[in-house]
Amino acid sequence: MDAFAEYRRWIENVKDAELKDDLISIDGNEEEIRSRFFRHLSFGTAGMRGILAAGTDRMNIYSVGRATQGLADYLNEEFGGGSVAVSYDSRIKSEEFARETAAILAANGIKAYIYSRLMPVPMLSFAVRELKCQAGVMITASHNPSQYNGYKVYGSDGCQMTDTAADAVLGRIERHDYFSGIRQADFEEAVSGGLVEYISDDVCESYYKALMTTRVNPDLPNGISVVYTPLNGAGNEPVRIVLGMCGFDRITVVPEQENPDGNFPTCPYPNPETEEARKLGLELCEKVKPDVFIATDPDADRVGVAFPEKDGTFRSLTGNEAGILMLDYVLRGATENGTLPDRAVAVRSIVSSSMADEIAANYGAEMRVVLTGFKYIGEQILLLEQAGESDRFVFGFEESCGYLGGSFVRDKDGVYASMILCELTNYYKSRNTTPLEVLDSLYDKYGYYRHKVANIAFPGADGTEKMQAVTGHLREEPLREIAGFRVVETDDILKHEHTAEDGTVTPIDLPASDVLVYTLENGAKVIVRPSGTEPKMKLYISAKEDSAEKSDLLAEELERATREAAGL
Questions:
Q1: Half-sphere exposure (CA, 13 Å, Cβ side) for 316?
Q2: Residue of 286, 288, 278 lying closest to 257 (CA atoms)
Q3: What does each C-alpha distance from 389 to 37, 341, 355 come to in angstroms?
């Protein structure tokens, strides 16, 4: 693509005044023009995500329109039309993009169901299934910085679109220009004509009722208080409604982060994993002294959590620690209550803690390990559903603070996780212990697993190529040792190859993905993979020693050595 020719074409064709001014403001800035117009914003199984601005590699009304026209073409050609559920979070332009999506679908003869107010990812996934739609669209950039937005597409099963379907949609998108061939309809006229319909509150109520079926100890009286922050996002209404339904009525919401605000003024990077995003909530905890602190990201699919130590300070858990704690609680409680299904199944991503495998085995549950991306966890639920065994699924999680229980949602569900975290806090308090004490007892029992995630940024137009060069180099010159420990197994997921230390190669039954997994002689693991949603290379380090201190030191040394070996 000729970036400068495309820039001039946009200058000539853009009608939106705000985007027009944006284009004029970069006139003469060759680096910025090249950055915005060197390619089309990529579209894949997670849809597309980018910085809000004018340009082909940016999120704007024209990129949304082109993507929606491609989706409409796909649905009309593959299914003869159908319907699509649409939702949006609190980000800048989210409602505008959602209405544009619904209007273009309507112009193409496809029924669009849209929430009348912002609703989170899990409620979009639920609506797709409840309304028997052929697809779903969620306008969100999840936990990305405030200048981002995105367009996430779901299949008829409520799970993020498969590789095959995403490729088929992309093929249709590529047929279209940004400024012609996009069928348009007036949103309000489409509502009046019945091709756009607001999703009724009955769907919300059905989701809430479904959540109640996943409770482990529903009859235990409330004995806890909660501090909660929706981080100015879509979790505020559903999380508080669900906690209220469970009897957790002593909730204090962080006032500065309560109402929707796409600028995220107190935390421009609204990721509940980060210290910045948790800061105001933890400060409020020092005053309120709750039993648990919970934070959901803007689209309420991820959850961060902290619990009080004995000295009154609060300890934030990693995504792995929260997942381990919830998994153990769900299996423990179901075992105690006699409700654990036969041949229960839990699922974790390949980069999440293998400590979960030991916990599952302790309760006689099967642990399935899948690639990173919650669609792969959703795929396992679909396989169980197709076998008439969806009730076997009890819990799924990713280390990046994503959790799910029940089969009625097929993506990360921060509303569910908030409920279960409050419930387990209440349960353990009723037994004169705390979640932190339980977590420490799990470490005592299974070993001191420690996990580090390093994010190495690769910004700019050539960022993707540079990341691919890193993994390409590691394939050309395989690592034989890391930090003095021999590599005894190497899994190359892209090539479907498992290589033993003696050179024996056996196949791996996982979808192709640019991921390298190194298992060391001491049982530690190092995983190298480019992020699928951000311009970052990720290193996942897993270490297990006989003390927390030794595990932390080993994890740090493995990260240092891996960076050095990979040229990072």
A1: 19
A2: 278
A3: 48, 10, 25
Specify the 3-state DSSP secondary structure of 219.
Answer: coil
Domains of the chain: 3-199 (3.40.120.10), 208-446 (3.40.120.10), 448-566 (3.30.310.50)
Collapsed DSSP state (helix, strand, coil) of residue 362: helix
Largest Cα–Cα separation, the chain: 69
- What's the length of the chain? 568
484: left (phi over 0), alpha (psi -120 to 50) or beta: left
**pLDDT for residue 535:** 79
Give tens-digit pLDDT for 507-559.
998 888 899 999 999 989 999 998 876 778 999 999 998 898 999 999 999 99
Annotation marks residue 547 as catalytic = no
> How far lies 238's CA from each of 154, 294, 299, 305, 461, in Å?
21, 14, 11, 17, 39
Count of CB atoms situated within 10 Å of the CB of 566: 19
Helical (H) or strand (E) element with 453: strand 448-457
Question: What residues form DSSP beta bridges with 480?
Answer: none
Residue closest to 331 by CA, chosen among 348, 346, 353, 349: 346
Round to whole Å and give the CA distance between 294 and 303.
7
Contact 292, 305 (CB under 8 A): yes
SS3 for 188? Answer: helix
Q: Is residue 239 packed enough to be buried (19+ CB in 10 Å), middle (13-18) or exposed (0-12)? A: buried
Residue type at 431?
Answer: R
Question: Pick the catalytic residue: 142, 156, 353, 551?
Answer: 142
Nearest to 119 by CA among 258, 245, 299: 299
Of 535, 555, 533, 553, residue with least CA distance to 543: 555
Residue 160 DSSP one-character state: B
| β-bridge partners, 197 | 113
Centroid of chain to Cα 424: 23
Q: Which residues of the chain have pLDDT under 50?
A: none
Taking residue 529's Cβ as centre, other Cβ atoms within 10 Å add up to: 23
Evaluate the CA torsion angle 199, 204, 207, 209 in order and state its sign: negative
